[in-house]
Amino acid sequence: MRLSTFAFAALLALPFAAAAQTAPAYDAELAKSLGADERGMRQYVLVILKTGPNKMADGEARKAMFAGHFANMGKLAGEKKLVLAGPLDGKEGRRGIFVFNTPDIETAQTWVATDPVIINGEMVAEYHKFYGSAALMMVNEVHGKIEKK
């Protein structure tokens, strides 16, 4: 017996309909704790780190500067100021990004000013207001659970 096209299409759609019904329910408490608006979004500051005017020569001082850079990122992340960070491909001098837990560029500037790569002029920072998912606030917590130490 052949299935009609309609019946066949209905059978194919069942898994998708079931998946739609099992979508997680809205969690008002979680949304509030992450600072989410009605869209589940919030304001951040995005910082693009670019090559600066003072490239430090390879050696112990450069290693120490980058060790300080990573330690500073860890400190800011631990204080829940730094939400996300990572390197870029270096195109057009763009070397990395920070996403900060503030809508205020001036506040982000004070946090970036503590970084040894900025202090030494190895990199300079470009600041942008960024509107993104409030779930980014959970990145550091989740990352800690998946990072092999």
UniProtKB/TrEMBL annotation:
Keywords: Signal. It comes from the Bacteria. It holds the Pfam family YCII. Residues 1-19 form the signal peptide. Gene3D superfamilies: Dimeric alpha+beta barrel. Residues 46-122 form the YCII-related domain. The keyword Signal applies. The keyword Signal applies. Belongs to the YciI family. This is YCII-related domain-containing protein.
